[in-house]
Amino acid sequence: MAVLAVCWLLGFQDCSDGIVYDDGTRDFDIGFLASTQEGIVVIPVTPSSYPYVINQVCVGWGRAGSADALDYEIVIYGDDGTPFPLLAAYPASAASIPTIPAFDFTSTSTLNANFQGFVIEQGTVFVGVRWSPNLYQDFAVIGDAPAMFPGWYSAANLGPWTLNTNSVLMIRVSDSVNLNPLLNYWAVQPMCTPQAATVLDFIALLNGSGCASP
Ligand SMILES: [Ca+2]
């Protein structure tokens, strides 16, 4: 029973039981110049049945600098063709973020005491993160390719938005509640073999040579 319980908890930390569009291996990094005051990246999320309650959002963060923690927001937008309007924003944080090409999924589960879940009644919403690259420099959301579900990015809350056709982002949602959010802070996901060192640019799509092994 104890083993089952541990596996059950571990299964939630990366939202692998939820809506997952990526293949779990890194192909790109999406970051912003340090002069950017507000960076936003989102992906479209379309549940297979409704209503769907988002209880967790897991983000694959990586870093290129020395700081390994940041505060950010989970943001959810409606779909009017681009991400609009802003429907919800939840404060979140991530710590012990590994250096790219490694990355780590974190979760809004730390908010569960007050987080009641976001209900998708129908259609598609855009889910992602908003942070200040000026305050928290050299962090990136890991991307995946090929892009069956390309994400959007913006340097302003109301846009304009740019479609990132090259990548789906490592952003996942789950309707399960993670009962042990502390797991999110030390569980570094297995990563592919290292690729060349990278430097973030605006917008940096760092097309590595791909993973030699999963
Ligand atoms: Ca991949």
Describe the protein's topology:
Layout: H1 2-10, E1 28-30, E2 39-45, E3 52-54, E4 56-63, E5 70-79, E6 83-94, E7 104-107, E8 118-120, E9 125-131, E10 139-144, E11 151-154, E12 162-164, E13 168-169, E14 171-174
Care to describe what's here?
This protein has 214 residues and is mainly beta. It contains 1 helix and 14 strands. The chain has one domain (2-185). The protein has one helix spanning 2-10, and strands at 28-30, 39-45, 52-54, 56-63, 70-79, 83-94, 104-107, 118-120, 125-131, 139-144, 151-154, 162-164, 168-169, 171-174. Strands 1, 4, 7, 10, 13 and 14 form a 6-stranded antiparallel β-sheet that branches. The chain has a 6-stranded antiparallel β-sheet with strand order 6-5-9-2-11-12, with no helix packed on it. Bound molecules: calcium ion. The site of calcium ion (CA) has 4 residues, from loops.
